[in-house]
Amino acid sequence: MLNCSYDKRQNCTLERHFKKTPCLHSLRQPCLTDNRTEDEKKAEETELFTKYYSEWKGGGNQDNTFKHIPRFYYRLPAEDEVLLQKLREESRAVFLQRKSRELLDNEELQNLWFLLDKHQVPPTTGDEAMISYDSFLKVGEKAGTKCKLFFTARVYAKLLHNDPYGRISIMQFFNYVMRKVWLHQTRIGLSLYDVAGQGYLRESVSNLILGSEDLENYILELIPTLPQLDGLEKSFYSFYVCTAVRKFFFFLDPLRTGKIKIQDILACSFLDDLLELRDEELSKESQESNWFSAPSALRVYGQYLNLDKDHNGMLSKEELSRYGTGTLTSVFLDRVYQECLTYDGEMDYKTYLDFVLALENRKEPAALQYIFKLLDMDNKGYLNVFALNYFFRAIQEQMKIHGQEPVSFQDVKDEIFDMVKPKDPYKITLQDLVNSGQGDTVTSILIDLNGFWTYENREVLVTNENDGTTADLEDT
C-alpha cells in the first residue's frame, strides 16, 4: 500500500508511468488527519490505479474491445430445456438436409460419367480410358457447380501416375468422386444419430433425450438394407447389434469414454466391412472373416451359449476356462475377473465380446492394451522379470499336467526380451510390445499353453505345413 513513508524516487516512478497524472501520494490527505481504515485506503488506491492505468493504456475505449471478439462458445441446452432441445434438433436436421442436397445424386453422377467418357484422350492404357488436364478442366466447366471441388489441380496431381502423356485414368477419377460422395453421405447419415451434435456417437444416451443408443440405432436401422443379413431372426437383432457395436468401441474408444468420433468411424475400415454385406454374392470366406457377417455373429454368440453351462446368461471363471482350446491359464483368467466388469463374479455378453476381440486380434494395439493391463498386476506401466515369471509358472504347471517337461523360465525370459528389445533392458512397456511387432507372440507365451506350444514348435509346424501334415497339442 502507498503511504507517506514512500520516498521521492518512488513517487517519480509512478509519475513517469502515468505521464501527466499526479502521483497517488499527492492525492492523499496527510496521514495525521486520515482516519480511514486500511481496507478503505487500499480500495481507494486500487480504484485510482485502475482508472489511471486504463487511461494510460488507451483511454475509455478499451473497455469495449470485448465487443469485437467473435462468440466462440454456445451453451448446450440442459435436459429440462425441452423447447431449446427441439429447436436445436430441428436446426441440425435442416442443416444436414442442406448438406445432403449439395451432394451429387445418382443422375448427376451418371451425367458426370458420360462427360468424362466423351472427353477421353487416346490412346487408352490397356483397358483404361484416359483424360488430359485440358479436357479435365473442360469437363469441370460443364459438370456443374456441385462438381467444382473435384476438378482441381490438386486432385489431378493426386491421381497422376506414370502415364507418358501426363493423363489420368477416368475410372480412377470417377471412383475417387464416388468415394468422396459416399464418405459425405455416410457422415451425414451418422450425424443424424449424433444426439449431442458434437461430432461423436455415444455408447449410451440419457433416456430423457432418446431412450436408446446412437450407434446401436444406426446399425439397427441399417440391417434391412444389408442383403447378407436377410436370414437373421428379429429376435437375434439385439445380440447382433451388440456384437457389431462392441467392435467399434473396443478399437476406437481405448480410454473407454463411451463415445467415438464420427471422423474415426469414417477413417477406419469397420464401416466398409459392415457395408460389404450389401453384396449379395459375397463369398463364404469373406463372410467368415468379416466380424459383422451373420455367420460370424452367430459363431460368437453360439460360443457364448455353449460356454454357459448353467444357462443363466452369464459366464463364470470355470465356464470361461473352456474358451477356445481350453488352454488359457487359471492365473490369467483370475486377472480377467479381477479387472473386467462382472456381476457377482460372472461375465455378461458385452464383457465377453471385449475378451474375444482382444484374443482374436492380438496384433492390434487396442488388443495388446487390453491384455497388457491384465498382465500388469501392480499397474506400474511395465512388465518386469517378476511379472513374466508369475504368469509363466502357470504355463509350466500346465505342461506338467500334459506330461511334458517344463521349459526353463530363464530361457523363455531371455527370448522374450530379445524379441521385444525394450528401451529399458529390465522393463517391457506396452509401447515396447507394440513397436516390436511381437506383442501377439509374447502375450500368447504368457497366457495360453497352446500359444506357447505353437511358439516352441514353430519350426516343426512350418515343416509340417510344407509337407501337408498337421499336429496339435494332444499329439505331443
What is this structure, in a nutshell?
This protein is mostly helical and 476 residues long. Helices cover 56% and strands 2% of the residues. The protein contains 24 helices and four strands.
Task: Describe the overall structure.
This protein has 476 residues and is mainly α. Among the domains are: 8-61, no CATH class; 84-191, Recoverin, domain 1 (Orthogonal Bundle); 336-345 and 362-476, EF-hand (Recoverin, domain 1, Orthogonal Bundle), CATH 1.10.238. 56% of the residues lie in helices and 2% in strands. The chain is built from 24 helices and 4 strands. Its main location: cytoplasm. One of its GO terms (cellular component) is cytoplasm. This is Serine/threonine-protein phosphatase 2A regulatory subunit B'' subunit gamma. Keywords: Calcium, Cytoplasm, Metal-binding, Nucleus, Repeat.
